[in-house]
Amino acid sequence: MPRQIDATRQFFFRVILPLVLLTALLLVGSAGGLIWLANFQTKTAISEQARLARAAIDVHGKALAKGASDYGHWDEAVVAIVDNFDFPWIDGNIGHAGEDSYGLAMSFVLDPENRTVYSYVDKKGGAVDARSLLSNGFNEIVARTRGGDRVSATFGLVSAGNELAMVAVAPLRPFVDKTRPQDTGYLVVFVDVLTAARLADLGNTYLLPNLRLADIDDESVDPRARIRFSDEIKATARYLAWDPARPGDALLRTAGPILVITLCAFVALSVFVLRYSGEAARLIRSSEARAMRDALTGLPNRVLLLDRLDRLIGHLKSRQPGVALMYLDLDGFKAVNDGHGHAAGDELLCQVAERLRSLLREQDTAARLGGDEFVVVMPGLTNRDELRTRASRIIETLRSPYRVTDTVVEIGVSIGIAVSPTDGREGADLLQKADQALYLAKSSGKGTARFHSDKALQVVGG
């Protein structure tokens, strides 16, 4: 009997106990690893959402700044504001037009002393002082615009009462009349008040559920799922917040009980964890892809374009002669948009995007910067004759008639061309040089293309 007890004890200590301890260690290690993985997934998802939130605000601000620049770079506006103040013209073409085109809540015109000479507030034109409605950063944005190159628009987030507002400020300057000084001293101000409904729309677009304003002491907000507006807004303790993605919580709720039941479930759980990890990664990639794509045409937007362009230029330095960039601006699009409605304008932009896709090589990229501006990137293509041929083909293709909303319309296109490394070794620099070439093309009669580095200003006919 004692021998049986000793044998049983030895078996217990030599076999059972080690197996129990090993199983316990595996379960504890698996549980610990599962908890770590869940926390890591949640942290990564929230970090990606914060990056998407900043990208959403930046893209929204750049689009508003582009609109303000378009309205500020206008000969008729200079005449109506500077030469002979024409309130009805300003009210119809800036105030009401800004609301109709961009859904703006407010717009203003400031004189060289920053006095408000025109305001559009609550759907009425007047002369309400912009500084009485906008604070926490507005003066700084105006100062940045005046201290800049007197050509570019600036944008930023400010306070509009108890709400947040995106403000874009652009210098008022002539477009065609070269006899006038470019610096008139007047500014066009566009204001998009980010109401709860407006923030909800942005949140739906960028997969940021319940995007809203929140106080810093709001305990219901996860500190990781909020961002500050901008450096200018220092007098407020409010943040942009959203309901963060928590893939790790779902993982624990589903996999935890399985881990406790049996060791066999541990193996099944491992597969389950991998599947959940793949799904979380897919959701993050999907969110990022939506933030980097133009919602209307599906083409890459400015953020994705610059990222691809910088990668492409760096990759081609040792393997290809360079990369060409064509900056496209549609001629006559505004007339179609105004004459046939925004739905027709959107349909026309989609058809333009499809025609551009049909002209691309496999290695080329087409992107939409916003409004009626597109970019085509062509790696390994620097021969000017071939670029002229490609540009002419684009001009011919895009000016063929379109059928939108049972109506046939026609537009044209002007193109500015920049080539790396001659015109720049960075994506943003190359884009700027192509934009400058586009300005020359439009100034020379539209429907043409210009090279930035072409000193003879040779025109590619459309």
Question: What attributes does this structure have?
Answer:
Beta-Lactamase, 462 residues, globular, 2 domains, single chain, Alpha-Beta Plaits, 6-stranded antiparallel sheet, disordered N terminus, 12 helices, alpha+beta
Strand content: 15-25%
What is the CATH first-level class name of the largest domain? Alpha Beta
Share of helix, binned: 40-55%
CATH H level, superfamily name of the largest domain:
PAS domain
Overall radius of gyration: 29 Å
- How many domains would you count in the coordinates? 2
Count of strand segments: 17
Summed up, the helix count is 12
Structure description:
38% of the residues are buried. The chain has helices spanning 2-72, 75-83, 87-102, 138-146, 196-205, 247-261, 263-291, 302-316, 333-340, 342-359, 384-398, 427-443; strands at 106-110, 116-121, 124-126, 154-160, 163-171, 187-194, 212-215, 226-227, 238-241, 323-331, 365-370, 373-379, 402-404, 407-409, 412-420, 448-451, 460-461. The chain starts with a helix and ends with a strand. It has two domains: 1-291, PAS domain (Beta-Lactamase), CATH 3.30.450; 302-461, 2-Layer Sandwich (Alpha-Beta Plaits), CATH 3.30.70.270. α9 runs antiparallel to α10. Strands 3-2-1-6-5-4 form a six-stranded antiparallel beta sheet, with helices on both faces. A six-stranded mixed beta sheet has the order 11-12-10-15-16-17, sandwiched between helices. Strands 7-9-8 form a three-stranded antiparallel beta sheet. The chain is of the alpha+beta class and 462 residues long.
